[in-house]
């Protein structure tokens, strides 16, 4: 598979992003939703920040206090055996899990699709009681003149999928939680199919496995008729977990979905699957091999190395233009000829 | 709290239920949805069956094979160290979990509400690929002349909530999975409130806790605007897990919900909570003490002892008539004056 990575990769790094407050540092600018707005490419970045920590004896967890409408910082003494710090992303305690960073969504704009200007302030910052641990991994679906943004909202109540809408990416309207906890990786199809909207989603199940489901909706707000769409494959690059990636886009042959799959060692790749045009709950073909694997240095190492993860692509000029998070750290860009993606599905 | 248990308790036992096939035995007839149909009280029982097992060297797991449209029985050698048989309800293996029984739904009818005739054959038996491990814990919501039955559908894909409808409890129409995995304990309110249907549900979350959420729907099929309704209470009878129990019913003061709560030792009681009439996502009052606790012998011991669990009540003649599963084994019946339930919420 011929993959053309931008020579400017990674195209957005944490250093290019101003923290939301002076006592924070940006540790990740990754997993971005993508859309076209006028003659610009819009990215809605997930920006992960953590408090600057002058005290090596404690770990910190930043939390948005929805009642007091401000960020509070919890301290955890490093030598307290009740706390488990083994995962750099989280602190395990008897009272629950805390995250070591707080994510918000930040806008970046570009005319050429590669060189981006990143806004100085957040576009969407945690606000509701479902967002106290941060908002993550946005996908953008344009329907008419409205852009629908869905994202993972994390709190001690669980991980729900929240929906917001905007016409201009300046003001956003929150529309509520559209999938109950725990759920992630929701990608809403950009048009109705036989009278219903469709979305891929990835529920968490203690009984089942982290696999992709499809649901339908009359109004984008309420979702039902949940059906299992595709599963893990044994002894494969996607035998650990899979989830929807980019918003599905229409090609002649059906709906093309670029999804992510990880193996049991948490190596994340991107794969492709083709769904029936008028029955998107039916799979026409699924590629055996990934279309993009973590190989470049900025993909192989970082905050969480060995990860390529896309929340959105553009399909233009017969190319799949992939914006993707690299190593949970930066945004990278690659192009693959559409024809090659489709050929890989045969 | 004055609780009047029927002197005929348990009113339905496994022995009163004919197995669905001669090589099965019924080990549980419990957790029943309840409705009035004409001059009869209808119970839709969860009937748990397991294969008669002549070979003490193996454990058996009955599974509905949705492709072949028949029950298949998997064998697990007792001395194979790869299998974990410590929980009598399930067999843990490296490839996933299997259940030792298969549940279906069975109709029972009564004119006096206490003496029931149980149908000889199942009303609803596993049928879809989401029901291969059984269907469990039905709730019945009557809206107009239609009865909506929702139940937990268990398969290796997870635990979803499935909806079916019926006018007569003879023929049922399956309407699809209304909540994605894992979810349980869905109770649908019997009328629209300000133009929307409402339901309580209990999602499973690795991040959050087993608590009660509320969702809304335009059509009973698609659900959204998921909001956390009520949580566990520390050092209380409901500090382990809670979930909706009976279908909420209207009293003068609002919506009364009889829910179940378990402590950390898995002792299940019933509690009461009052929700605002026109804003059911708001709690008016929640009782501090349970309204029903496992005390009688048939509640204290059985397949899973120390459990009272209700999927439905009738509120008639100023009494709350509670049909409840006792010890995951039998159905029992108790009455509590409505006034006393309401007083307990002050």
Give the chain pair forming the largest contact, with residue counts. Answer: A-B, 41 and 40 residues
Helical element count of chain A? 2
What is the CATH domain class of chain A?
Answer: Mainly Beta
β-sheet strand percentage of chain A: over 45%
CATH fold-level label of chain A? Tachylectin-2, Chain A
Poorly predicted ranges of chain A (pLDDT <50, ≥5 residues)? none
Mean pLDDT of chain A: 97
Characterize the quaternary organization of these chains.
homodimer
H/E element sequence of chain A: EEEEEEEEEEEEEEEEEEEEEEHEEEH
User: Please, what is the CATH homologous superfamily of chain A?
Assistant: Glycosyl hydrolase domain, family 43
Distance, first to last CA of chain A? 13 Å
Description:
The structure is a homodimer of 346-residue chains. Chain A is mainly β. Chain A has one domain (4-343): Tachylectin-2, Chain A (5 Propeller). Chain A is 3% helix and 52% strand. Chain A has two helices and 25 strands. The first copy, chain A, has helices at 297-300, 338-343, and strands at residues 4-5, 24-37, 40-51, 58-65, 70-77, 90-93, 96-99, 102-110, 117-118, 134-143, 146-155, 158-166, 173-179, 183-188, 197-203, 212-217, 222-230, 241-244, 249-251, 254-262, 268-275, 283-286, 308-316, 319-326, 330-337. In chain A, strands 18, 19, 20, 21 and 22 form a five-stranded antiparallel β-sheet that branches. In chain A, strand 2 (24-37) and strand 3 (40-51) form a beta hairpin. The radius of gyration of chain A is 19 Å and the shape is globular. The relative contact order of chain A is 0.15. Chain A binds chain B through residues 97, 129-130, 154-160, 176-183, 201, 203-209, 211, 213, 215-219, 221-228, and chain B through 97, 129-130, 154-160, 176-183, 201, 203-208, 211, 213, 215-219, 221-228. Strand 17 (222-230) of chain A pairs antiparallel with strand 17 of chain B.
